[in-house]
Structures are given as C-alpha cells and as structure tokens.
# Entry
Amino acid sequence: MLELYHAEPVANSMKVLLCLKEKGIEFTSHYVDLLRFEQHQPGFVAINPNGQVPVLVHDGATITESTVINEYLDEVFPQVPLRPRDPFERARMRIWSKFVDEYFCPALSMIGWHNMVRRVARSLNKDELDEVLARIPLKEQRDKWATIAGESFTEAQLADARRKLGVSIQRLEEILKESPWIAGQTYSLAEVNSYSMVAGVPRFFPELMNERLTPRAVQWLARMNERPAVKAALAMPNKVPEVLRTFGG
Ligand SMILES: N[C@@H](CCC(=O)N[C@@H](CS)C(=O)NCC(=O)O)C(=O)O
# Structure
C-alpha cells in the first residue's frame, strides 16, 4: 500500500504528486492542512518527527524528503523511468535537484513565507501563537514561524532571496541552451523536482523570467504546463484561498 501525506499541489508536495502522476501510480492521499498547523499535531509528528510534508508511507515504511522520495519511487516503480540511463545525465539530474533544494527553494520559501504564511501567523493572538510555536518540533521552523509572526525578514534578506531567484532562472536558461531538458535529452526528475519552484516566477517576478531575458526557460515552462501529469497534479485539492496563494515551502 502506498500513502502520501501532502499539502496543496505546490512546492515540495507538488514534487512528489507530480512524480506519482507521471508514473501513473495509484496512492492513498492524506491531505495535511498546513494553515491549520496539522503538520505539528502529535499524530502527524509521530509519522514525521520534523513535522513537515511530504511523507511517503510504502507498505509501512516511512520515507521523508521530497527529492529522496522521488528517487525511491523511480527505483521501486520502474515504469515510466524518470532517471536518465546515461550516468552523466543522471549526475546532471542530481546536481540540479541539489541546487533546487539548497539554493533555489530556500530563496523562494523566504519570499513565500513573507508574502503568504506571514498573514496566517499574524492572524493569531499571542496565546494562540505561543501554543503553535510550542508544538513545532524543528528549531529552525520554530524560528521561521516566530520571525514572520514578528518583524519578518529584513529588506536586505528579501532582496538577497530575489537575487537568488534571478540566479536560479538564469542557470536554468543556460542549461537549456545545451539540451532540451535539464539533465540532457530526456525529461527527468530534474524537471519533476523543479516545476513547482519555477511555475510561479513569471507571475510574481516577470522581470526575472520573460520571453526576452529567458526565452528557453519560458518555453520549458510552457511545455511543462501542457503535460497531462502536471495538469492532473494541479487538479489535486487546494484549500488555500486564492488571495493567499503563492509559492514557496
Ligand atoms: N526538505 C524537505 C522540506 C519539506 C518542507 O519544507 N515542507 C513544507 C511544505 S513545502 C512544510 O511542511 N512546511 C510546514 C512547516 O514547516 O510548518 C523536503 O524536501 O521534503
């Protein structure tokens, strides 16, 4: 039995939802409402002590970390392979996924938290906030929630995050000058792991990603948006009000 604990089809949850849809794997969906702090409830923390989604449970075995989950899925369900056969292309796929996890996603996340999650944190009164903070298992996440409930990130931090977004999209553009897909000749987990991060950039930062500056990245995103698996994953339930929707984990 395959179960996925996930939030809306954005950020890290979307990575795994897209992988499952590309491979056509049936799974039991467990929606975790992040805006109601279900990820910090004891029942969920017993599944993932980090108190974060996504989490895959396969025949009782629990796997966390979206990038690792996707490699696991590709190993265990080899239909529709998403890792290139060529070792060099496979290395390129992993280098890009690592870059997304360590550089691109954290920058995006800071902006997403500042624009969206901050409104949720600020809707709580002091007692409610203290109660939420006390339940967050990871110190880093606790600090992040406390930061946005207070003064939020500084202008300098946000400007640096925007700079990193620009670097990330430029890097995508450079890679796509050499090959149709990020790892090389084939669509791979490099795409699956970064679609959700790139998708919101033209809408929120049109000056960083546009036809003139980054034509290949724009075309790549258009090709991604046409994929049936992307459409199917995006059709998964989304309870976040439109006004609060943005990107970032
Ligand atoms: N490195 C983890 C990060 C997971 C993560 O950041 N999850 C976010 C949603 S995209 C989350 O659960 N946030 C809620 C919280 O931290 O309270 C992964 O790639 O799976």
Strands lie at 2-6, 28-31, 55-58, 61-64. DSSP finds twelve helices and four strands in the chain.
